[in-house]
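Data card: per-record layout.
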Amino acid sequence: MKDSGASTQQVSSIKVRCNFATLGYIALLKNLLYQIMFKKPFSFDGRIGRTEYCLSYFGYFAILVVLGATFPNTDMANLLQLILLIPLIWFLLAQGAKRCHDRGNFGGFQIIPFYLLWMMFAPGDPGENEYGPSPKQPAEQRV
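The structure for this 143-residue chain is written out next.
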């Protein structure tokens, strides 16, 4: 009987360790997304890198798909979709402006056709530019 009790304790301690490890990864992901990336998602100030810009676009399109799939095609649903799209478009414009800033351009460049694709793949300006420090710089160096 004691052997089964000991093995139960071992199994439960393994489960606890796995849960703590999972929580550690979730906390790391939360830290990455909320403290390092997406600090001010609706602000037009500052710079963002390619990763945050691409994640912004993928998130935007995922939300569009969900909105399109969940609402029926009625006048009231279309009005609700429009109301929900306004902050999403603001978010996308803000993220695009910050990515333009990382390239050393003002935010209006994002209306140039195919420039959005260029911003996904082209590297930003190294070091600090007129829009702020590089998003690749460690947080301690960004003063």
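Known properties of this structure: The two ends are 62 Å apart (CA to CA). Helices lie at 2-36, 50-70, 75-102, 115-121.

See the next section for split statistics.
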